[in-house]
Write a structure and sequence with these properties.
Length: 285
């Protein structure tokens, strides 16, 4: 039950009403027995600074940050982690001793999803990341620090791929679409498959990866989690490939935020169950 001592957290972004984060975090607080509550705040573009002032004034303990504020909040924070600084994007703000600390937990969440949920050892793996936007850059940077054998970033705009490669560090390179043929792990970090790009003529969007090129032993990862089985993952499964969607990354990036805010171990099963239930409700709506 909420009381005068309940501690507050939330997410800022727009649009925000579809966010799964309130379901995930409130389930986590309940499972962990913490007197915390998490709300979704619709914050219009250009108002990130006001939201940070509100966080300070109201004593909000933690904020998740989503589109379009991930870069805009950087200037208003007291401390920014090296990952968030390099990526130019913050997705998690923690209030510590009255000061606001910014982090980016997407890359760590991606690695945890593969290691913890899938039991995948990334050491010496040849990895191809397709897409070099916010998610692709975070994933490339995380993989660059994870001891992979090689990392190739493939993207429609070569300049964005080059930036992701720079963030990943030595050993990473810009590749061409056909380079997925040499990868043990292929990651789609484009929005192709979310179903948002269907043309007015009703044509389906293309697959971001030609699955026929992939090795039979390759693992195919899609960062998209809704739908749970994207056209890409369906094509991969039809070829007998092992597939992984983006739900694990979503849960684990939230788990890192939970740890930052509460200093407690995140109740992963409760968080995952809440996300699955929330996705089911969104699907029925
Ligand atoms: P973003 O910053 O907008 O970047 C999109 C990337 O996809 C860019 O590299 C872009 O290429 C490429 N792209 C877009 N449309 C394309 C097309 N028609 N053909 C080829 N490439 C195209 O988006 P984002 O934030 O990185 O998100 C990417 C995906 O990851 C989304 O589906 C998002 O839902 C998912 N995601 C999942 C999680 C999770 O927790 N599971 C977290 C974050 C994001 P250009 O550079 O050429 O424009």
């Amino acid at each position: 039950m909420l009381s005068g001592t309940t501690r507050a957290a939330g997410v800022i972004g727009t649009p925000i009403r579809h966010s799964l984060s309130p379901a995930i975090f409130n389930a986590a607080f309940e499972a962990a027995g913490l007197d915390w509550a998490y709300l979704a705040f619709e914050v219009p573009e250009g108002a990130a600074g006001l939201a940070l002032a509100g966080m300070r004034a109201l004593g909000i303990e933690g904020l998740s940050v989503t589109m379009p504020h991930k870069a805009a909040v950087l200037d208003g924070l007291d401390h920014v982690s090296p990952d968030a600084e390099a990526l130019g994007a913050v997705n998690c703000i923690t209030r510590r001793g009255g000061e606001l600390h910014g982090d980016n937990t997407d890359g760590a969440g991606f690695l945890d999803a593969l290691r913890i949920d899938e039991g995948i050892d990334l050491a010496d793996r040849r990895v191809a990341v397709v897409g070099a936007g916010g998610a692709g850059r975070a994933v490339a940077r995380a993989l660059g620090g994870a001891g992979v054998g090689s990392l190739t970033v493939i993207n429609r705009s070569p300049a964005a791929a080059a930036r992701a490669v720079e963030l990943a560090g030595p050993g990473a390179s810009v590749g061409a679409p056909g380079d997925v043929a040499h990868a043990d792990l292929v990651v789609n970090a484009t929005p192709l498959g979310m179903g948002v790009l269907v043309s007015t003529a009703g044509e389906h969007e293309p697959l971001p990866v030609d699955v026929d090129l992939l090795q039979p032993s390759a693992v195919l990862v899609d960062l998209i989690y809704h739908p749970a089985v994207t056209p890409l993952l369906a094509a991969g499964r039809a070829r007998g490939l092992r597939t992984v969607n983006g739900l694990g990354m979503l849960i684990h990036q939230a788990a890192h935020a939970f740890r930052h805010w509460t200093n407690e171990d995140p109740p992963l099963e409760a968080m995952s169950a809440a996300a699955v239930a929330g996705l089911g409700a969104a699907h029925r709506a």
